[in-house]
């Protein structure tokens, strides 16, 4: 079935997709593909908050400087400055919509809302809604989106690929409904807001993380991808092998939480002068090293010294969730372990969300704007979603006329592929990525990952050519190819920088490092 009625098609309904839909809808008709799984994605589970210069004691230059330091020499300074400068107005816009940020009722408060501090930040600049900021922002945005007459919400379709024409323009997306029927949604402009690639790994901080599907859908059209090797591992995910993923916010350390090993000893002061407030890459590697040194499968995050009143006040969601899993964090330290959290790489875009493919745009974690460089600083992610969704929306306010051209057909077979075989390959991929392409990578490990992923690719490719379309198969096909490109980027970076740490090349390389850029065609040379 082909539907030609769409002006702006947005794929993904986290913060970035919701913001863009609202900001465009007063000018053009928007169709928002927002499956129910988006409520389990990264946006809703963002606890800490949004970084922005809001306090009179803070300034733009300080936020820029902190971000550049965290990005370890690979940030695009123009993108950093653009993002930071747009931050305060983005927060004011959220406040105008009614997002219930936590107020600061103290007598000496210099800003009406409570600001916390997180790793890498030199000041308190994180505005938050208790410890459930993502949920508060998503729920508020959803209410406005659902009430807007110019936004059509579509929750029963899942995009499995993009539509191109003979001139190389993006023309919309191919989707499947719950019964496996194919739908072609033709659009004047298409926006990917589909999330990152943490799902390439076994342990993540989101219950249903994306696995880079949007990145590879864009790459199939020829879009450039950038900095795939920089996968951030959040230092503190609740360690509970029997339960679902749950992130323990950076703000816990910002308010005084201490990392201790299984013997009750602090270890961060010996690693970095900033101790628990060092950037995430440093903290995650330190935890990983401590686990290896002691032979333990986790460390502890201790906030008992803060007292019950402060714990319940600042972290009600974390307190309640841990209690539901039998852990009293007022009297017990929290067992934590690093887990895949955020993709600093993605589809190359400019400051307005444009990709290298005409009429295809990307915002949020699926995009690589240059803001994060080699390591994202805490709470700059929701900031990026806001700023780039709004800047992309401004570009889309006016429709440009595209040339008429023939659409490229979809090539699908008729053979079904069993769900078990798909899951077997997915699990093998995740095991390889977690064992060989995680916090610390070695030359030998990367070689083993490249070889193992190539074998999985060879197992799957013949089935894909003959298979009937299905969402699990399409998602795996996207994920497996992205995993191979990620390994290729990691092998090509002959240095350790930010989130990419390889003891076989432990120091920085070039004084003027370059981002890694890759296209889907690179797979043909492997």
Automatic annotation (TrEMBL):
Its EC number(s): 1.4.3.16
Fumarate reductase/succinate dehydrogenase flavoprotein-like C-terminal domain segment(s): 426-511
Cofactor needs: FAD
Pathway: Cofactor biosynthesis; NAD(+) biosynthesis; iminoaspartate from L-aspartate (oxidase route): step 1/1
A GO term for molecular function: L-aspartate oxidase activity
Protein origin, superkingdom: Bacteria
Enzyme kind, highest EC tier: oxidoreductase
One matching Pfam family: FAD_binding_2
GO biological process: 'de novo' NAD+ biosynthetic process from L-aspartate
Alphabetized NCBIfam families for the sequence: nadB
Function: Catalyzes the oxidation of L-aspartate to iminoaspartate.
Protein name (database record): L-aspartate oxidase
Originating species: Halomonas daqiaonensis
Taxonomic lineage from the root: Bacteria, Pseudomonadati, Pseudomonadota, Gammaproteobacteria, Oceanospirillales
